[in-house]
Amino acid sequence: MRVQTTVIIIVAFLLSHVAGYIIYTLDRRDALEMTEAIDIAERAAGISRLTRDLPSSWQGEIVQFSDSRAFRVWTSSLPAVEAHDISDDEGDILAYLRSQVPRIADHEMRVSLVDSISDIRRLPPFGTSSRSGAAVIAGDPFNDGPGLAISIRHSDIEWVNFIGAINTPKSLLPELLAINLLSAAVGISLVAFWLVGRVTRPLAEFADTAEGLGRDLSREPMPVQGPREVAVATEALNGMQRRLLRLIQSRTDLLAAISHDLRTPLTQLRLRLELMPVSADRRKVLQTIDDMDSTIGTFLAYARAAHESELASRIDLGALVSSICDDLADCGAPVSCDCSAGLIVRCKRLAIKRAITNLVDNALKYGGQAEVSVAPCSAGVVVRIQDHGPGIPDAEIDMVLKPFYRGKADPGRARQPGTGLGLSIAQAILEDHGCELRLTNPVQGGLRAEIIMPLAAAAPRA
Fold first, then answer.
1. Residue 385's pLDDT is what?
2. Does any domain span residue 82?
3. DSSP secondary structure letter of residue 107
4. pLDDT for 354-370, tens place per residue?
């Protein structure tokens, strides 16, 4: 958004300035050309007054000495300007001539703006007699370019003709225009990039906070700042965070209360059974009570999995996983371990230990044995847990991570004791740490569970 907004501002600036430059150039050219045309008409009016006011014997010399390469003056029996429908600019010039030479009637003056002076008929070459009617000399530099032609009647048989070149003004130097636009664009882009970044920074923080809530719902609320729209969205996000925290806390408190209320009568039942004579029925009832107590504890662990009050600390992940494998091996579990030491991460030690233990127990329960390894990877650290069981069908991999799902494709898995919360608890803990849990079926068989823990993201708040 920052770059796009800056580009939009720069493009709009360039387009507006280019359009303004074109309009200014055209208007400036028209204004300068009209000014030069009026100057030519004023000079022609002055010469016309002289030839009328001074003795007729002087007329030829006045015309001859007024003739030049830049301003041609000559007399002829026919006007050099033919009668035609005049334009608005020609009408303005003709009105100016009337004001300068009021004694001449309207039909005795003719004005024409021409694109090329060579188009004027009866134009004698420069340097010949003023009364000559010779053809135009080819290559005369005066014959090229736009100009203003004027014919004024002085007698029944004589017209005085004038023609002056109009110099088309040159456009502004393209180099200067390019330098101006480039310097302005660079300056505006720097200012716009800074301003847009300042405006959109709260929006970026809002996105980061929203993303972080998925990993740590207990993080500090986002400060309300920035534009009004972002501030309103921030207040809504903070309100949603508070409601979610209250909801989860209410759920946890409810399960804790249920656990307490259920465990109290279960404890009473166990005490009473202990006082009864030993029998097969007594053992079965005690086993059922133990199963119920374990199930209640599992429910409570799942409710608290992603929101432990444990403080995060720096630990050696390889050493932690090795200790888990050693404890299981001491109990006779077929576990092998290949863990690299020195992979320091910041996490909640007991929570991560519970998640990894659940995954290793899962591999032992359904795969018969577990091969555990910890190694660095491009994303941080990867913990791999491989078993040699039947695996999980690809269609059920996402389903087994849901609470209470036992795996319908494998009847043996459904018959195993448990509540179906082991993987769900592990996933909740790992998501709280910003980790990723991947379940895959390798080609050689079995199920592989991988924990991808980014070193930079493996630091959840307490």
1. 92
2. yes
3. G
4. 889 989 998 898 888 89
What's the pTM value of the predicted model, to 2 decimals? 0.47
In percent, how much of the chain has pLDDT > 90?
4
H helical segments located in 54-141: 59-66, 88-100
CA–CA separation, 346 and 355 (whole Å):
15
Domain end (from 130, 165, 200): 165
- Rounded to an integer, the average pLDDT of 241-258 is 78
Bridge partner list, 373: 338, 384
d(CA 403, CA 391): 19
CA distances from 298 to 127, 211, 337, 351, 421 (A): 118, 29, 27, 14, 7
pLDDT of residue 459: 42
Q: Share the mean pLDDT of the chain.
A: 77
Residue 136 one-letter amino acid: V
The whole-number pLDDT of residue 372 equals: 92
Strand pairing partners for 371? 336, 386
Whether 386 is in a domain gets the answer: yes
Q: Comparing 9 with 40, which gets the higher pLDDT?
A: 40
Which residue matches tokens 């769900």? 424
pLDDT at 384: 92
Whether the predicted pLDDT of 229 surpasses 80:
no
| DSSP strand pairing (335-339 vs 370-377) | parallel
User: d(Cα 156, Cα 387) in Å, to the nearest integer?
Assistant: 122
CATH of the domain at 359: 3.30.565.10
Question: What is the edge-to-edge ordering of all strands in the sheet holding 436-440?
Answer: 335-339, 370-377, 380-386, 448-453, 436-440
Asked which of 165, 195, 217 is the last residue of a domain, the reply is: 165
Nearest alpha carbon to residue 430 among 334, 325, 306: 306
Q: Tokens representing 446?
A: 């079995």
- For residues 310, 311, 312 and 315, what is the CA-based torsion angle, rounded to 10 degrees? -80
Mean pLDDT of 384-409: 77
Q: How many domains does the chain have?
A: 2
Q: Is residue 187 part of a domain?
A: no
Host domain of residue 328: 313-453
d(CA 74, CA 215): 96
In a domain, 251, yes or no: no
